[in-house]
Structures are given as C-alpha cells and as structure tokens.
Design a protein that fits this description.
The complex is a heterodimer of chains A (about 190) and B (about 300). By secondary structure, chain A is of the alpha/beta class. Chain A is about 25% helix and about 35% strand. Chain A has a single domain (about 1-190), classed as 3-Layer(aba) Sandwich (Rossmann fold), CATH 3.40.50.880. In chain A, strands 2-1-3-4-12-11-10-7-8 form a 9-stranded mixed beta sheet. Chain A has a 3-stranded mixed beta sheet with strand order 5-6-9. In chain A, strand 7 and strand 8 form a beta hairpin. Chain B is built from 14 helices and 9 strands. The chains are: A alpha/beta (about 190), B alpha/beta (about 300). Strand 7 (about 115-120) of chain A pairs antiparallel with strand 1 (about 15-20) of chain B.
Chain lengths: ~190, ~300
C-alpha cells in the first residue's frame, strides 16, 4: 500500500513523518504520472491558491478527481480541505468533491492563529489552527467528526475526510491510529 | 467542590491559546516548497498571488533600488502595507529594521502575518536584535552561518533565511551561506554531546538551540534561501542545496516580464529535481534583472555584513 502526498507546495513533508510513524509507504505527488501506484491520498496544508496555480499546467487535479471519485481514502488538512470543498467563499473551487461550504482564513490573520482543544472521535487534543478556514455548511452525506466546542472543524463524506486544523503537526496517538485505520479501510467506509 | 469542577470543565472546553511558538513556526511550515516575493504595491501583490506565490513581502523599494538610491531604508509606510494586505488572500510579510522593536510592534499592530527583521533595511541598533519572544507575530531572520542562525532562534525567530546579497541578482552569497549553514548543522549533529557546550562557546550560540539541532538533525525552524535569486535555475539550485523554499526580491519585478518569471520560479521551486521541467519553464522568459558582481561591491555596500 502506498499513500500519495500532494507535494506542490506546503507542509507535505510533515505528513511523511506521520506515515513513517505508522510504518506506511508513501510517494510525493508532483506530476500526474506519480499517481499510478497510490491507493490513498493526503492533501496537505499550504496556500491553496499556490497549489491550484502550480497544477494548472499539467492536468494533475483532473486525475486526482477521478481517483477520489473511485473511492481511494483521501485526507485533506487546512488548504487540503479547501481544495476538496465544493464551495469556497471568495475563492476558487478546484476538486469540488466534498459537499460543504468553506471560508478561507476565517478566523483572521496569523495573529489570530491558535492552538485549540479539539474533540476528535471522543478524544480531546490540542491542535494547531494556522490562518485556518471554517466549515460554514455541510451537505446531507457529510458527517461531522471533529469539534471545538460546538464548532465543526473536521468532516467526513464516505472516503473523504478533511480538517481545518493540522493533526500532522501534533502526531498524537489518537490521530495516528485513526490515520492508519482510514488509509487501510477508508475505501470501504460508505456510511455510518 | 462541585462548582470548582464545573468551572474546570468550562475552561477546558473553550481552551484556545494564541501565538505559541508552535503556531508561529506553523505558518512557516505552511510556506514550505513555496516562493515568497517582494512587492511594492497592490498591483504587484496581485501579480505575485496569481503567479502562485506562497506569500508576499510588502516593501517601499525592492533591494536593488535601495542599493541604487542609498539613504536610510526604513519600514514601509503604513499605507503601502495596508494596501497590500487588503489586495491579496495569501500571507503578507513586512520588514522592520534590525533592532527596531517599535517598527516590529507597529507591524504586529497592523496585523501583518510575518515580520522580517532585515539587513536590507538600515540597522537601528549596532549590537542588538529584537527580542522576538514578546511579539505575537512570527519573525524571519537572515543568517550567514549556523552561529548567527542559532542566535536568532534563541531570540525567538520562527524561521531562518540565508542573507545572500540582496539586490544583486547574484546567487553566489546565498549558496555560500547555505553551504556554511549545512556544514554547521553537520558539525553539531556529529559532535559528541559532551562537546556541545564548547561548540556553543566557539560559535557564540545558545547551548539549548544546539542541543535541539543535535536531537532533530536539522534546524528546529524552517530555513529558506534569500538574496540574489533571479532565475528558475537559481531557485532550484537553492532547493537542491536543502532549503525549504525561496524568497525572491528584486529578481521578479526588476526583470523584463515579471508575471512569466514569477510563475516560472514557482514551478521550478516545486519541481527543483526535474531538469526537463526547469528547461520548459525557462523558455521565453525575457530579460532577467541585471546582476552585480559581488567583487565590485565595497565592503560597506554588502548588506550581509549587517546583523550580529
């Protein structure tokens, strides 16, 4: 099994660390040819505008869309969530597969970035929110899986899971065991 | 007792902490693999964002012009910074003078995303840099070697960049500084732990930072290249030398076709280990900025000498 990590720009190398900790193989995805052997996918944090621009010349996103629609387990963090979202307030929809409305930099600028206590699958952990987006609305098929108090900060729609924060900067036990489960079993997770 | 417990639950439920070092460093992590471009107005900022910049640096004059025009170079005007902040959605950085903590406090109050305590501006203190722990906004600092990098990290810098020689379009100094940094890191990592204090003394650097470098096998913060990068090949060279990303100052908006060149440098930075791709984006780029030989500069003109 090999996980592909979108590596156009952003903190993709931090995700390699998470995968090393759970002893999973990975490759860095820069061109569409890199997608041949992967069976799960991670879209990292970074600047979504930058990633969209870099891929626009080589049809990488078209291929990614097909793979995700085919059901490979896909995880997006921060900018990765923005790439996946169907509707981006004041921004560009790119993959448009996750039925939700997101707003970029919704908490404000860097001075408003924070570490917040997140409830994720009945565990609580401090995670980093860096110029983070907010999930404003979700579709019927989308399940809320992570919260700060009442606010939704993580969602799942079948094989797609996405977070507004950065679990890969913390790599706590709970996240790593979920990550292992999701990239192994996420394809078959059709409903709850 | 019940009341106390209730209070505790409420506190824990709402726990949010701003501007921890992890959060400051975190933004730098998100910029990795990206290009940060110097811009002097909203129009250039929009061009940079459209070309795929990961962030922009708001400036009054690019380093090449500071070099040519001389005079005291200060923090940009509030209007310039605000105009650039409202024109783009990517992070905006701005420069303060070395040691000028009030300029840094102003940038913090303006809500800028990153402060560059930069040798490109005229230093305000001939001995001291800013204590960066006290300011909410993260800092990036230039360094020419590992000792300098460790001192800045000790002061609270959340990101390091090579100084290079800004405004020359000549990459030689950035290469020198990056190689020197790598050499320094290797020396720390290969040292016995009993040698670290003596090494810290030798390079005038905080012992704790050396210990962390030894543990991690690399700098504890993100390390970018800056100072003299003018072509897609320059950017890829710095990435292959082990940088996490690049700053391009005068190289873009002092060239013949800024938008094309900006995009080409962005793509070359992502695909730094793919020569075919670098060839492809290097075609029809127009004139690069005119370069300056480092040997033609007087010692006093070398910006990398600033900072201590």
């Amino acid at each position: 099994m090999t996980t592909g990590i979108l590596s156009l720009q952003g903190n993709f190398l931090d995700h390699t660390r998470s995968l090393e900790l759970i002893k999973k193989d990975y490759i860095l995805i820069k061109q569409k040819n890199d997608l041949k052997s992967i069976d799960s996918l991670i879209l990292p944090g970074g600047e979504s505008t930058s990633m969209i621009k870099i891929q626009s010349n080589n049809e990488l996103f078209k291929k990614l869309k097909i793979l995700i629609n085919d059901g490979i387990p896909t995880i997006g963090t921060c900018a990765g969530l923005i790439l996946l979202a169907k509707d981006v307030v004041d921004g560009e929809t790119s993959l448009g597969l996750l039925d939700c409305v997101v707003e970029r930099n919704a908490y404000g600028r860097q001075n408003e970035s924070f570490e917040g206590l997140v409830n994720f699958l009945d565990n609580t952990q401090m995670y980093c929110f860096i110029r983070a987006p907010k999930i404003l609305k979700t579709g019927k098929k989308v399940k809320n899986i992570a919260f700060i108090d009442e606010e939704v900060v993580g969602v799942q729609q079948n094989n797609i899971a996405a977070f507004t924060f950065h679990p890969e900067l913390t790599n706590d036990k709970n996240y790593l065991s979920w990550l292992k489960y999701f990239i192994e079993e996420g394809k078959n997770v059709r409903s709850f | 007792m019940d009341f106390c417990l209730y209070k505790l639950v409420v506190i824990i439920k709402y726990m949010k902490v701003e501007s921890t070092f992890k959060i400051k460093k975190g933004l730098a992590e998100m910029l990795k693999g990206g290009v940060i471009m110097d811009v002097i107005n909203a129009e250039q900022a929009v061009t940079a964002e459209k070309s795929g910049a990961a962030a922009v640096m708001a400036l009054e004059r690019v380093p090449a012009d500071i070099r040519a025009q001389g005079g005291v170079a200060r923090m940009s005007s509030v209007e310039t910074i605000q105009e650039i902040m409202t024109s783009v959605s990517i992070p905006v950085m701005a420069k303060s003078r070395i040691g000028h903590f009030v300029e840094a406090q102003m940038l913090e109050a303006l809500g800028i995303d990153f402060i560059d305590e930069s040798e490109v501006l005229t230093p305000a203190d001939e001995k001291n840099h800013i204590d960066k722990h006290d300011i909410k906004t993260p800092f990036v600092n230039g360094a020419t070697n590992i000792g300098e990098a460790c001192r800045r990290i000790g002061e609270g810098a959340a990101m390091i960049r090579t100084k290079g020689e800004a405004g020359t379009g000549n990459v030689i100094e950035a290469v020198k500084h990056m190689r020197s940094m790598t050499e320094g890191i290797n020396k720390i990592v290969s040292s016995d732990k009993n040698q670290l204090m003596a090494l810290a003394k030798e390079i005038s650097a905080p012992y704790e930072v050396l210990k962390e470098i030894k543990k991690l096998g690399k700098l504890p913060v993100v390390n970018f290249a800056a100072g003299g990068i003018a072509t897609p090949a320059d950017a890829a060279l710095m990435m292959q030398l082990g940088c996490d990303g690049v700053f391009v100052g005068s190289g873009i908006f002092k060239s013949g076709d800024p938008a094309e060149r900006a995009e080409a440098i962005v793509i070359a930075t992502t695909n730094y280990d793919n020569p075919e791709k670098i060839v492809e984006v290097s075609k029809n780029l127009g004139e690069p900025m005119v370069g300056i030989n480092i040997d033609d500069l007087d010692e006093a003109e070398k910006l990398a000498k600033r900072g201590w």
